[in-house]
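tmp note - Branched-chain-amino-acid aminotransferase-like protein 1
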Amino acid sequence: MEEIETEVIHSWSAPRSLSTSLMYSFAQRDDTEVVDEPLYAHYLKVTGVDRPYREELLSKMESDGNKVVNNIIYGPGGKKYRYCKHIAKQRMPGLSDELMKKGKHFILIRNPLNILQSFDKVVPSSFNELGLADLVSVYSELCAAGKRPPIIDATELQEDPEATLRGLCEDLDIPFQASMLKWEAGPKSVDGIWAPWWYKSVHKSTCFGQTDKYGSPFPALLYDVLEQSLPFYNMLRSHARHKRFPKLPTPSLPVPANEKLLVWVGDEILPRDSATVSVFDSVVQGGDSVWEGLRIYRGKVFKLEEHLDRLFDSAKALAFNNVPTRDEVTSGMGPGFNLYGCTLIVLAEWKPPVYDNTRGITLVTATTRRNSPNNLDSKIHHNNLLNNILAKIEGNNANADDAIMLDKDGYVSETNATNIFMVKKGNVMTPHADYCLPGITRATVMDLVKMENLVLEERRISLSEFHTADEVWTTGTMGELSPVLKIDGRVVGDGTVGPITRRLQSSFKKLTEGLGVPIPTYQQPA
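out:
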């Protein structure tokens, strides 16, 4: 056969990942020759790992890794493509850089839950034997070189082989061939020396078999290896091609800088995508948590003590145990306090005011009533927000920014997210905080009203009074002071931001510029 320059396709995987089935699939192409684990002998020679076939393999296969790279992987061939099946852990240090620089690369992954029992029948399973960390290393190195490899999941390959193979061929920029979907049963001439130990099952196959819906019970002895390996599989899976089950689109972030956040969860700092809590945590199973949102102005935390007071009061009201101290929340964050009981989460992100405080917002009145203290006291700053969410859905459906919520008697309580104020004939009014959270920004604005020598009334206020108000605004840590220009289709005042609203916005801004607890490491921009 005439030798021609061959383009190499590298498949990287952990063992028992349907990699041999995929090799058989590519072997059915009329333009492809395949090579089964060409670096295996080099791996055994360098590591000294024992295998039942070790001596035979070392005597019959080239064990000099760089000779393998130059002469076998990238040597001349007889077909357009050469498909090289690699097990990631066999890529040992010291191999020629050409291995990764040249050719087309892709990664095949499989859930270690489905790998371990099969692997353990031949070789005792361990984290190093599976080599998922090595597979992540392959992915990272290729990405760093600007050659981000496509990733396919073995489960997708079993459930919809044609769509998965078509997608892979598209990513590799090679034509799909229908012959890839079937092969003859039995041993193959391309099999490695190790086939009698590892390929008994695949030799019975003629195509990519269906997944076992239920599987067999997972052995407890392999649990530790599974626990160690799953994070690496999940990291790669997050970048995999999903044909039948496409990933939901990643939501756009209002502030791009928040894409690379670090988040404190429990007793460790984690990247944004890894910041999770256990499904066994009570916040997941029952919404059993309390929270605070704080703002930082000019390197200082605004109203820190007030927020901490409310946080600890809320935790006490819910009878939380092992609550971290104020010092641990604000400075130490040591791992010792979170061994039992509460999980502390600190999420610091860039967040501009959530409303347009220059042009104002619109509100509608929700049919959903605010919780009564008889049912769930809103003075506890908890995470059970379904009451608010239902009202917010009504606001969204009406194309409003937020929704006003009434108490059981029909008086205005607050919005789904903020406290609310109104002005009539120069007097400032706000509802009693009987049904709503007595917000810290609300209390701050009430103090500012008095400092500005304005009349303040805290009383029951009907919805019609808000409809006929001269000015209306909402208050909240995330929104600050937000002018309301329309309620239920009715224009508030003359439809512009009112003078008292602007006056208090200005006073609030001055207060935030001077008040607050400094962050020790904060550097004021030049």
